[in-house]
């Protein structure tokens, strides 16, 4: 049985980061949606029901923590794995994001060689290669 690609929402306002992550995920058979603001992320999550959300912490409207709280408060998205993908990589930031309720933390710039493999562990079982 062949694994079906996951539905992944990338919440990212930097066009270069968005393009790279989208390209890598598409190349591995995943279906990618994007949102460039926190409000758009909440709206898209409700409509699309992604399997995984990659969430930048620095967005033009809401910060990633506010988006996380909004998504966790909605019954339809409370179960979705949410990964912080951010250039905010100071001492203690990983611990702060995990304590806030993110499932995982990835620092930017991402490593194209290991990016998709690192995400595999956060996908529902049916979507593993």
UniProtKB/TrEMBL annotation:
Record-linked PROSITE patterns: RESPONSE_REGULATORY
Keywords in alphabetical order: Phosphoprotein, Two-component regulatory system
Entry-annotated residues carrying 4-aspartylphosphate: 56
Pfam families: Response_reg
Domain Response regulatory residue range list: 7-123
InterPro entries in UniProt: CheY-like_superfamily (IPR011006), Sig_transdc_resp-reg_receiver (IPR001789)
Domain of life: Bacteria
Protein known as: Response regulator
Species this chain originates from: Phytohabitans aurantiacus
């Amino acid at each position: 049985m062949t694994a079906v690609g996951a539905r992944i929402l990338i919440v990212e306002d930097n066009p270069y980061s968005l393009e790279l992550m989208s390209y890598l995920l598409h190349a591995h058979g995943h279906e990618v949606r994007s949102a460039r603001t926190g409000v758009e992320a909440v709206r898209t999550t409700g409509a699309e029901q992604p399997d995984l959300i990659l969430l930048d912490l620095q967005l033009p409207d809401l910060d990633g923590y506010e988006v996380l709280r909004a998504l966790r408060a909605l019954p339809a998205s409370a179960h979705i794995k949410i990964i912080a993908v951010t250039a905010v990589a100071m001492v203690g930031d990983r611990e702060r994001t995990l304590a806030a309720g993110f499932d995982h933390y990835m620092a930017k710039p991402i490593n194209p060689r290991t990016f998709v493999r690192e995400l595999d562990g956060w996908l529902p079982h049916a979507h593993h290669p």
